[in-house]
């Protein structure tokens, strides 16, 4: 498998971090007289690494600059006022601490990026959980949420609410001699056709992808629902004589069932769907 640039940088950061740890351990072991001081500086270096991981490289380097300035000032003060001479090893941690920070950043930057991408994907999945990915129509989860709002409006303002349930006649038989890609495209085409037949204030749902079942919530009465139903059938008939006839080599027919909302008999969104599906028996 081909490795990308981010993976290569991560590997370099990991190897550099291990190398710096090895050098630090060797340095501490070679200077037993300053063991405690070196351990303290090593802990400071790791603390800056942790801060960089939970923030960003810029903030980590700023802290490193503060540390270097403070430590260098302390060395300069002792050299000028007390005449203390420092060896080259004294400046070891001035170099190693920022190197630890950079190495840890290179090692963890890909992990941080993956966490951000994962958060984006989770957010998208939460959105797509109510949307069908092929047709971009709301699914049955959205229908159950929206039906409660529509039914509440219907009761409060005494407005008739109708659910249209639309199925493709002989869908299972069609799936036997059409490819999965053709059936996916058919769902998209029929969904687009249905959307063109309703008002922008009405909502179209893909209730069952396997059975090719759509639903439309309409704030209208039975004659209004009949008008929409006839419009849908006329449009599918026109499509069969043009686009669908050449594209799918079969005649696609729709069955439409309409059910007026009755709060006495319909208690849940699924009851509403079931009642509308029963009306399909009269559409022969």
From TrEMBL:
Q: What SUPFAM superfamilies does its record include?
A: Nucleotide cyclase
Q: Name one Pfam family in it.
A: GGDEF
InterPro entries xrefs? GGDEF_dom, Nucleotide_cyclase, Rev_trsase/Diguanyl_cyclase
Transmembrane stretches, start-end: 12-29, 35-54, 61-77, 89-107
Alphabetical UniProt keywords:
Membrane, Transmembrane, Transmembrane helix
Q: Which residues form a coiled coil?
A: none
Superkingdom, taxonomy of origin: Bacteria
Q: Which residues does the UniProt record annotate as the domain GGDEF?
A: 131-280
| UniProt signal peptide | none
According to UniProt, the name of this protein is Diguanylate cyclase
